Amino acid sequence: MTFVLSIFAGRLIQLQGLDSKVYAAEAAKQRVQGEKLTARRGSITDAAGHELALTREAREVYVDPSEVKPAMRDQMATFLATELGQPKQDIAAKLAVPGSRYQKLASAVEPSVAGRIMQGASKLKFKGLGTRSRYVRDYPGGDLAGTLLGFVGDDGNGLSGLESTYDTLLAGRDGEQIIETGRAGQRIPMTRSTVKAPVEGRDVRLTIDRDIQWAAQKAIAEEVKATGARTGSVIVMDARDGRVYAMANAPELDLNDWRRTSPEDWVNRAVTDVFEPGSTNKVITAAAALESGALRPDTAMRVPDNIRCADQVLRDSHPHSVERLTFSGVVATSSNVGTIMAAQKIGDQRLYEMMRRFGFGAKPGSGLYREEGGLLPDWRNWSGSQRCTIAYGQGVSVTALQTASVYQTIANGGVRVTPTIVAGTTDERGAFAPAAPAARTRVISERAARDVAGMLEAAVGAEGTGNLAAIDGYRVAGKTGTAMRYDAECQGYCGYTSTFVGFAPADAPRLVVLAVVQDPQKAHYGGEVAAPVFKKVMTFALKSQKIPPTATRPSASVPIRTGR
């Protein structure tokens, strides 16, 4: 007896003396539980405060299969299938998983539905069912500004678009709660509890106008479908301060069902896709010529339908006899040969430097997700034919936002304003904090900008290539663009990029609208494909912003043709 008791005594000394801290720590691991307190993600709203992305409370429904009696599985599966709207066989399989203590049945159930399920389970004496609170991201507009906004993953982190760019700000900081629980998971009364409260995410307010965004998406989606095109984009900007009112793409992304969409359509093509701008680039050549004093809008030019550049002969879009055009007429009729002649008067270096000043070869600075800067080769590396083709927009690549920014600069009297998409955010107290003013850079003189605007207004006139963009009662300035499109699949130029970009009212610019359609099949000229989209969107935006016509007529404009 003494020997046996001495063994017990030794063991007690070991447990309560020598190894007491080790066992106490192991017991604490089993008893003390940490639970993450998820922070509520901030909202993304349009300029008027309408929620485009919001967070709502939901419930996760789960089951502990080890507590479900085999005899109750069929009845329980029938009940849950009805309440959750899921196939009975899927739920039955989860209820019968051997050795499992946790199976998620639904991740985002409305609180009222979850409450009804738990009440029904209690009446029917089902065991093992449980719910826990969680937040889910909701997009009331579905695909409204889908690729611009982006989406969040199952872990609540932003995966694309603004949800990714502003993820840290929107997400906030999760908290934590530490409690002591018993074997069955119930909380032990009168035990310690530590709570670190979560910090809710901040809201982000955009410059986007919900109504203009809707109109832009509708117009570009209809045109892409009608022409059998691959994709298209529309941008609407404020000419004075660079605020973006709409940034639409087709196809657009349904944010409430993004998993069904191919990853290649998750991106915001208005800032990620680069293309050769074609004739919309001629305004930069015109601006360089006017700024240098090499040409004036009324300078007379004899323009043939072809011109030799190094070892190539480049032609206008259609054959014609030698035309007597003014420089304004060269832009209005979108003459490639006339534009090359103008570029030769200013030289490669000056043209290159002007493109750099307009923002080519660098990211626009909007800060949007995966924003691209295009490609502008150094003028010293231009080939013989590039010295001509770059003047009319082939041999250089840009994004839709870069092109829109060029026309915003001209509309704003030669001052480029960095495009802005975020109006501001809320601070720690929930008060709105406006974003810092956008950077402003003088690119060309006010006179040169005014002269270019006049030339662009002529391009929308009866003899211009953009006459389908004209809007009754308003003075409109703009430019068509039709460029050969490089296609990696055919490893060459196998399609077209059709563009129209302009501003209104031409004499007191308020809005800039760009429409670009990639690889249309039924027509390909920018004046046929993109100009009608511009007209629809600009007309809607002018009405939406309550911008009246200026009630003025163009002053004695420079004629397109000259008799000399």
TrEMBL record:
SUPFAM superfamilies: beta-lactamase/transpeptidase-like, Penicillin binding protein dimerisation domain. It is found in: Membrane. Gene3D superfamilies: 3.30.450.330, DD-peptidase/beta-lactamase superfamily (3.40.710.10), Penicillin-binding protein 2a (Domain 2) (3.90.1310.10). Residues 37-188 form the Penicillin-binding protein dimerisation domain. The keyword Membrane applies. Transmembrane segments: none annotated. It comes from the Bacteria. Keywords: Cell cycle, Cell division, Membrane. GO terms for biological process: cell division. Residues 232-538 form the Penicillin-binding protein transpeptidase domain. PANTHER family: PEPTIDOGLYCAN D,D-TRANSPEPTIDASE (PTHR30627), PEPTIDOGLYCAN D,D-TRANSPEPTIDASE FTSI (PTHR30627:SF1). Belongs to the transpeptidase family. This is Cell division protein.
